[in-house]
Design goal:
- The complex is a heterodimer of chains A (357) and B (270).
- Chain A has 14 helices and ten strands.
- Chain A is an alpha/beta fold and 357 residues long.
- In chain A, the strands form two sheets. In chain A, strands 4, 5, 6, 7, 8, 9 and 10 form a seven-stranded mixed β-sheet that branches. In chain A, strands 2-1-3 form a three-stranded parallel β-sheet.
- The radius of gyration of chain A is 23 Å and the shape is globular.
- The relative contact order of chain A is 0.17.
- Chain B has one domain: Orthogonal Bundle (MetI-like fold), CATH 1.10.3720.10.
- Chain B has twelve helices and no strands.
- In chain B, helix 9 runs antiparallel to helix 12.
- The chains are: A alpha/beta (357), B mainly alpha (270).
- Chains A and B meet through strand 7, helix 7 and helix 14 of A and helix 3 and helix 11 of B.
- Chain A: Keywords: Periplasm, Signal, Transport.
- Chain A: GO terms for molecular function: polyamine binding.
């Protein structure tokens, strides 16, 4: 008994020491002071040099915490344990967070440089008038092909994927909205449809694709494509750019008839505290030279029109990641359809995954 | 022995309540709520009324059976052989060693081995057969799952064989039984408890393998684990996810019950 108690006391003492050390370290970095901005971002989604520059320029400290899914971020902000000042959700999540009253509206008079953003990417359905969000990066859903196995003219449209020549050649990203969306677009419907007839037709169409589907995978799709495991993949432009950096035979196509247009956006969650630092950071990131530097580092497309002009020509004129206006005009943005419809989309997708295997 | 210390049992009870009973109660509780938080039986209706979930359940059971059978076929002779060797503790250690390595690392290692440019395909090309599609096949999924589960099957069987009194075997031989008779009438019945423990340790986790179904099976094998992951992470329909969890727990209880029953029958038969 005595030993047990001293054992427990020992553990408590160690915990206390660790706590003191960590709070001391945080103080040393200025992390508990009032001028620290906590940015809740995707992993490796900002150029660290920019953070240094921002700290140097403004005197505010920046602490970056990362998440790996919109849903995980939603849950953490809802719990409200950490005082995140800025978060970077995707567009449908902005809508969902807004509905859940997790966002603070932006004070437009304190934001300078919103005019730099391409007007095409402002005032969209998920956030009318951009009351809550500033676009950070954007991208598309498309087809990655390996030019050793597939010719460019064989995959320009979604319907090409159904061709019998691609039997057991295609990898799909494991995401219900995106793959159902692909089938809906192929049939000429909206990616936000709530019409069950259209959804059932899309699921049937996917079933017809299953002989061509080699696997439905998540992040590993990057590794598989880089290693020539499959000839084709349906995935997002950001993942595609990472694959292409590792394998020069890979190319990315956004089908002309339409696809998904996605955004990641800066928002102020309800946990925010340091408003001066928040607006300083938003304005800093809206500046063309900073947005361009960030886009060069991260490899995603910037919505900042002024920054686009500052990008190296090889990047800004790459139709794979900055498609022409006509293609962009056919892209559709996801809307939050509510839990019931999201459930139906996922059930259909699950049924497709179980089909015929 | 008799001096019972309440402090120890307090810790034990605290542990059990916090980490075994409370989660179980929470899962059962959650399973009665639909996505908008209303108390309902709809999740169970959805589960037992939909072909999708029933098919998925059958699928999971079928693959778990195959995995268990394959592991058993490999493990029993291995455990038997291990017992005959001189340095059995060393050999046993080598078998247990892979369990010290993270499951995800092992799965990624198999991706490297089985992929188009992997070692197996290099060998097949060298032999003249040419590269084959190995990843994302049912066979590779069952193979990798069996590889991962094997230590959990070998250990209980090894212990059972280790405890077997060799004089029984000698007596059987002395009385003129053939090798097969000795095995089927003496050794196997006396080690059946190890086999049962192994089957329990392998079958239940195999029902809900979800990471391997994606990494090695390419989501061409769908088990209940896939559906649970989806309901908790994507659709955030925790009620439905919990319902599947409850079904798995019930399945586990049934398995325990069934493997327990057979023991009595076996004894009567002798």
């Amino acid at each position: 008994m005595k030993r047990l108690i001293s054992f427990i006391l020992g553990i408590l003492a160690v915990c206390f020491l660790l706590f003191m050390t960590s709070s001391h370290l945080q103080k040393a970095q200025g992390l508990t002071s009032s001028d620290t901005l906590t940015l809740y971002n995707w992993g490796d989604y900002i150029d660290p040099q920019l953070i240094k520059k921002f700290q140097h320029e403004t005197g505010y400290k920046v602490r970056v915490e990362t998440f790996d899914s919109n849903e995980a971020m939603f849950t953490k902000i809802q719990q409200g344990g950490t005082s995140y000042d800025l978060a970077v959700p995707s567009e449908y999540m902005v809508q969902k967070m807004r509905k859940a009253h997790l966002l603070k509206p932006l004070n437009k008079s304190r934001i300078h440089g919103l005019a730099n953003i391409n007007s095409r990417f402002l005032n969209l359905g998920f956030d009318p008038d951009n009351r809550y969000s500033v676009p950070y990066f954007w991208g598309t859903l498309g087809i990655v092909y390996n030019d050793q196995m597939v010719k460019a003219n064989q995959v320009q449209h979604w319907r090409d994927l159904w061709s019998p020549r691609f039997r057991n050649q295609i990898m799909l990203v494991d995401s219900a909205r995106d793959i159902m969306g692909m089938a809906l677009i192929e049939q000429g419907h909206s990616v936000n449809t709530t019409n069950l007839v259209q959804l059932n037709a899309a699921k049937k169409r996917l079933d017809q694709l299953s002989p061509n589907v080699k696997a439905v995978v998540a992040d590993e799709i990057k590794m598989y494509m880089a290693q020539d495991e499959a000839a084709l993949a349906v995935t997002w432009s950001g993942e595609a750019s990472e694959m292409m950096a590792n394998n020069s035979h890979l190319h990315y196509v956004v089908p002309r008839e339409g696809s998904n247009l996605w955004f990641d956006n800066l928002v102020i969650p309800k946990t925010a505290k340091h408003y001066k630092a928040i607006y300083a950071f938003i304005n800093f990131m809206l500046r063309p030279e900073n947005a361009a530097q960030n886009a060069t580092y991260v490899g995603y497309a910037t919505p900042n029109k002024a920054a686009e002009k500052k990008l190296p020509k090889a990047i800004a004129h790459d139709p794979q990641f900055y498609p022409d206006e006509k293609t962009i005009s056919h892209l559709q943005v996801y809307q939050d359809l509510g839990p019931r419809m999201v459930g139906i989309y996922n059930d259909k997708f699950l049924e497709f995954k179980m089909h015929g295997h | 022995m008799k001096r019972f210390n309440p402090a120890y049992s307090f810790l034990y009870i605290l542990w059990i309540v916090l980490f075994v009973i409370a989660p179980l109660v929470l899962i059962v509780y959650q399973s009665f709520f639909d996505i908008s938080g209303h108390l309902t039986l709809a999740n169970y209706q959805a589960y037992f009324g939909s072909g999708t979930y029933l098919k998925m359940t059958l699928n999971s059971i079928w693959y778990a059976l195959l995995i268990t059978l394959l592991t058993l076929l490999i493990s029993y002779p291995t455990a038997y052989w291990l017992n005959q060797t001189k340095n059995k503790q060393l050999w046993l250690l080598l078998i247990i060693l892979p369990t010290w390595i993270n499951l995800l690392l092992k799965a990624y290692a198999f991706i490297g081995i089985l992929s188009q440019n992997g070692s197996v395909n290099h060998f097949l090309t060298f032999v003249g057969i040419g590269p084959q599609q190995l990843l994302f096949t049912n066979a590779s999924f069952i193979f990798v799952a069996a590889y991962i589960e094997i230590p959990f099957m070998i250990l209980p069987i090894f212990n059972a064989i280790d405890e077997l009194n060799p004089s029984f075997v000698n007596a059987s031989r002395d009385l003129g039984a053939t090798n097969w008779q000795t095995f089927s009438k003496v050794i196997f019945p006396l080690t059946i408890n190890g086999v049962k423990a192994g089957v329990q340790a392998v079958f239940i986790p195999s029902l809900s393998l979800f990471m391997l179904t994606r990494l090695i099976g390419g989501n061409k094998v769908i088990t209940l684990g896939t559906a649970i992951e989806e309901h908790f992470l994507v659709t955030q329909n925790w009620g439905m996810g919990s319902t599947i969890g409850v079904v798995l727990i019930v399945a586990m209880v049934i398995i325990m019950f069934v493997t327990g029953e057979r023991r009595k029958k076996g004894r009567k038969g002798e």
